[in-house]
Amino acid sequence: MGEKSVQKKRYIVEKAREVFVEKGFKKVTMKDIVEACDISRGGLYLYFENTSQIFMEVLRMESEEADDVFSDSITEDATAADILLLFLKEQKKELLRKKNTLTQATYEFYFENELPKRDNILKKQFDSAVKIIEKLIEAGVDNGEFICEDCEGTARNIMFVLEGLKISAQTIGVTAEAVDREILYLLRGLGVED
Amino acid sequence: MGEKSVQKKRYIVEKAREVFVEKGFKKVTMKDIVEACDISRGGLYLYFENTSQIFMEVLRMESEEADDVFSDSITEDATAADILLLFLKEQKKELLRKKNTLTQATYEFYFENELPKRDNILKKQFDSAVKIIEKLIEAGVDNGEFICEDCEGTARNIMFVLEGLKISAQTIGVTAEAVDREILYLLRGLGVED
Amino acid sequence: MGEKSVQKKRYIVEKAREVFVEKGFKKVTMKDIVEACDISRGGLYLYFENTSQIFMEVLRMESEEADDVFSDSITEDATAADILLLFLKEQKKELLRKKNTLTQATYEFYFENELPKRDNILKKQFDSAVKIIEKLIEAGVDNGEFICEDCEGTARNIMFVLEGLKISAQTIGVTAEAVDREILYLLRGLGVED
Amino acid sequence: MGEKSVQKKRYIVEKAREVFVEKGFKKVTMKDIVEACDISRGGLYLYFENTSQIFMEVLRMESEEADDVFSDSITEDATAADILLLFLKEQKKELLRKKNTLTQATYEFYFENELPKRDNILKKQFDSAVKIIEKLIEAGVDNGEFICEDCEGTARNIMFVLEGLKISAQTIGVTAEAVDREILYLLRGLGVED
DNA sequence: CATGAATGAGAGTTCATTCAT
DNA sequence: GATGAATGAACTCTCATTCAT
Description:
4 copies of one chain form a homotetramer. By secondary structure, chain A is mainly α. The first copy, chain A, folds into 2 domains: about 5-65, Arc Repressor Mutant, subunit A (Orthogonal Bundle); about 65-190, Orthogonal Bundle (Tetracycline Repressor, domain 2). Chain A is about 70% helix and about 0% strand. Chain A has helices at about 5-25, 30-35, 40-45, 50-65, 80-95, 105-110, 120-140, 150-170, 175-190. In chain A, helix 1 (about 5-25) crosses helix 2 (about 30-35), helix 5 (about 80-95) packs antiparallel against helix 7 and helix 5 (about 80-95) runs antiparallel to helix 9. Chain A is elongated. Chains in contact: A-B, C-D. The interface of A and B includes residues 26 and 163 of A. Chain A binds a DNA duplex through helix 1 and helix 3.
């Protein structure tokens, strides 16, 4: 597959991403993607065999670009609390966003495909986020910003709360206030006064 | 609708439940349910128009029967900590169970149907669970079992963690140990020593 | 499947037969048969899963109706030679007929489906034809019409020649004269003077 | 077309032959052949327009190389009976061979293409085989090996029996014993004692 | 009420064939 | 000459939904 093919594949994945954002995973057909890309029916099959394959590529591309969840938050003289807060605000924005989100499609994809439980991109992201938060909390404890006895447990707790908020946002609905309240609760747990 | 019709409807819903447990929500077709019920294709349409309608009925029946999430745990002389622990154990069992769970189907259903965000059974269950946990914690605080400054916040935190664990179990996979660890973390947050 | 279904199935098989006669086996699609029957696309699938299944049914029906290859030839006072000659004439007509023949389709079907080598309708027909010809020759020998030392071998020889003529008719082409010549040759082998 | 082109064409035909041997004629697509040859899709079209054209070339090449059906059998001091027997043994081997045979593909090809009935390679091969067998029988009669009144008729009979065996091998199945039995029958018809 | 045959829309998939490079 | 990406027609198959009985 030449240079051009790589570009076209990328093009398809980008267009497909929009479709998945729009419709989730299950509802999306090869036809939908063909139409979104404005290519021929057979053309798509030159690059991908099915929607799962395309979605996995979308996820891969996503995780490549988004590896820097924290990098935005980390600036020269930011404190641990600043960084954590920024990260949580970022997550809030993400989880409240109705559109331009792959959240639902991602869940649906993992529901449908029991297989990739191991070496699961989602899991890797979760674990690495826990690690980073843990380091952050440790740093905060060191310089007296945070109070925390079980940094790892707290990091994991934060991530599960975020997961809970995320899925709740997609199902029972969650308001900005509700998210703020949870963020406050988490910060207070670290000994941060408002 | 006569008595007989009510019974048949109930029969359909029960059979359909098995199908949803087995296949989630999206993948299920009217044909699947017709076959599971061993009734005629047209027959099903006399009672339900589509799978969404059937699933909502499944959910309704479910919540009627399961309103007593706590009732099992509450006995005469159980302490607040006992009850909370029993509840959490119950949730653990539920979320680790691969089969006989409507979890996935429920998520899929709410993904597909943006509509029932309001008067959403899931939301009601969530809110009422928060309430009950809050009362429980308050009781625990009163008799010195728990230490807690923000009972409502803590109750909500517990529920979001459970939601996070539940969705994680369906996507990235969660081990029994991981769940135990979270439960311990939550209890320690209430000042409970192991 | 009720009485009506049986009739419709029969109707489909009859229409499909025409299609197979027209186009052989391989070229025929479910769509072709749907169109020939003037039923809906999905309708055909209620009765048959694929063209092989339909063709097998065509063959079965064919063999039911045609079990009496010889019965036409057998009359009260016909001699063995008469009957044999009539049979051979019948075969001649059959193998020279361009249209209304399942020959080609049958060959194609057996090419495609290696499976039914055993309990193969074609084989049964061949074997039973050999048996009948053998009996016929024996009868002819008994009453002095034929001279033959190895009736079974001769019967089989006749059938293989007929098979050879049949496939030749479909591939290299065979004239009426050529068939007559072979028939004469076979009869002379039985000591019959023209 | 240059020297190189001729070679490439030959290469394609040889590779295509393998495909036809493997899959018959009808099932073979241009894509199959492209893949077998490991050339480009468009490249094949520079040489052939469709599978029929390719197959005809395969047949032509085949008949060029195989014109010597008998040449193997004919040695200095072999008797007519020896040669005939060798030829029949050769045919037996051929028709029992499951793989490496173009038989099925050839039949399918002639089924599909009504056209080449005239100037039909198959026919030429058949006719020339009849001629040769006839000469052989005449020679055998001359030196007292065979008894035969109608050499041409007998030669043709032999060829039709072989055709019958060949197609039977492909459809109803034929055992080595069955072939031997037919060969014996044919030889006895020529007055040859076992 | 209940049945289940029938319809037809629509998704998936494969290839023959073309054509710019 | 040669390549292989691209197109689009054609086929298979599945269901939601209707309707005569």
